[in-house]
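Reproducibility note. Readers wishing to regenerate the assembly model reported in the main text can use the exact inputs given here. Chain order matters: entities are listed in the order in which they were concatenated for prediction.
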Amino acid sequence: EVQLVQSGAEVKKPGESLKMSCKTSGYRFPGYWIGWVRQMPGKGLEWMGVIYPGDSDTRYSPSFEGQVTISADKSVSTAYLQWSSLKASDTAMYYCARRGQLGGFDYWGQGTLVSVSS
Amino acid sequence: EIVLTQSPGTLSLSPGERATLSCRASQSVDSNYLAWYQQKPGQAPRLLIYGASTRATGIPDRFSGSGSGTDFTLTISRLEPEDFALYYCQQYGSSPWTFGQGTKVEIK
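Running the prediction on these inputs yields the following structure tokens for the assembly.
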């Protein structure tokens, strides 16, 4: 059974760093793109970027390039999303999702809620 | 960057009615790499359709996708109570793999 399990909710202050995780199981991790999607409170889905763990090829949305870093560790079948300096505007739910071989994000994590406030 | 525009913003219908949701792209979507998702409050999105017209595993056949190039449609043939939700389209033919802004299907 394919599963994506994300790390728990975070409460942070502006300027702090954060690294969240998306641990996968039930499939061959290196062979599928893993993406990250932001959903701000009451708003729609925003594609942040993806990584192909097999060769670490990473693509970012222009809106998020330079703001976050996406990485993956094949040894533990886990993808990561990190910030070096959070802003209040980073408050949102963040989802990881696997792109299926035939397209579309076919499996999703449960989401990680990030709250950034002074 | 391909911009996806979904219409209408909100669709008010009754159970049993047909729902037609539109997704228009600012430029042609490569290989019809267009997906549709359903999202309910407090839940992660669920993949309904990929490749513009192929239902994902376990998706009922009342959901169908059509279209090509820049114009795509999601049709729900007869709305069930559990179908009232938010729906998003996404193109994954060229980076960034953008989402539309969503259509809410609400009970009339």
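We highlight two features of this model. Chain A touches chain B at residues 35, 37, 44-47, 49-50, 59-63, 95, 97, 99-100, 102-106, 108-111 (CB under 8 Å). Chain A is about 0% helix and 50% strand.
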